[in-house]
């Protein structure tokens, strides 16, 4: 099966200097960079997803801002497609599916941010479309969440998402496990 790597929203906004810093983002980006280097070396197509707000009042991921830029460490190389999205799901109102089909992609590997939002949406959508999906858990990041007066630490948010993926949507592997195959 022809594999493609989808790198989701690894943008400056998520860095400690950004407006929405994620727990462990630097480590996740470093791991994603290793996977991208391997993909390029072995001929696996890399697809970049970049979120841009279509709401002028959003204040984050504003088109043309530093925060909306893809981080330099995982920037597109050459002719790698960049899919700009305005919704959580990278397939919604984008040409991501068309791009995957144009490259003959039959299975996908996903890295990026945020585990509980855009990674969740792309993984579930891809699985629903019939793609076998692998998520590289240590090349993804998220943040603390709060609900009904309870704060859920980022590590627990992340672990819950990965457990849900593994239960029915994707294979979940570490970067080391993935690269050693």
UniProtKB/TrEMBL annotation:
What is the species of this protein?
Pseudomonas taetrolens
Domain (Isochorismatase-like) spans 5-145
Q: Which Gene3D superfamilies match?
A: Isochorismatase-like
Say if the entry is tagged with keyword S-adenosyl-L-methionine: no
Which InterPro entries does this chain map to?
Isochorismatase-like_dom, Isochorismatase-like_hydrls, Isochorismatase-like_sf
Where does the record locate the signal sequence feature? Answer: none
Instruction: Please give the CDD domains that the UniProt record associates with this protein.
Output: nicotinamidase_related (cd01014)
Extract the PANTHER family matched here.
Answer: ISOCHORISMATASE HYDROLASE, PEROXYUREIDOACRYLATE/UREIDOACRYLATE AMIDOHYDROLASE-RELATED
Question: Which Pfam families does the entry mention?
Answer: Isochorismatase
Do the record's keywords include Hydrolase? yes
Q: Which GO terms describe its molecular function?
A: hydrolase activity
Domain of life per record? Bacteria
Q: Tell me what this protein is called.
A: Isochorismatase
**Keywords of this entry:** Hydrolase
């Amino acid at each position: 099966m022809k594999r493609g790597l989808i790198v989701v929203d690894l943008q400056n906004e998520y860095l400690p200097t950004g407006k929405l810093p994620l727990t462990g983002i630097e480590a996740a980006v470093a791991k994603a960079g290793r996977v991208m280097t391997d993909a390029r070396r072995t001929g696996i197509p890399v697809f970049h997803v970049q979120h841009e707000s279509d709401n002028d009042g959003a204040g984050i991921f504003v088109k043309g801002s530093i925060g909306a830029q893809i981080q330099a460490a995982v920037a597109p190389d050459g002719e790698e497609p960049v899919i700009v999205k305005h919704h959580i799901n990278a397939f919604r109102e984008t040409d991501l599916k068309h791009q995957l089909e144009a490259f003959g992609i039959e299975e996908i590997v996903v890295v990026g941010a945020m585990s509980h939002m855009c990674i969740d949406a792309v993984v579930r959508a891809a699985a629903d479309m019939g793609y076998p999906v692998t998520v590289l858990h240590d090349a993804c990041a998220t943040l603390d969440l709060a609900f009904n007066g309870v704060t859920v630490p980022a590590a627990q948010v992340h672990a819950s998402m990965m457990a849900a993926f593994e239960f029915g949507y994707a294979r979940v592997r570490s970067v080391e496990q993935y690269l050693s195959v």
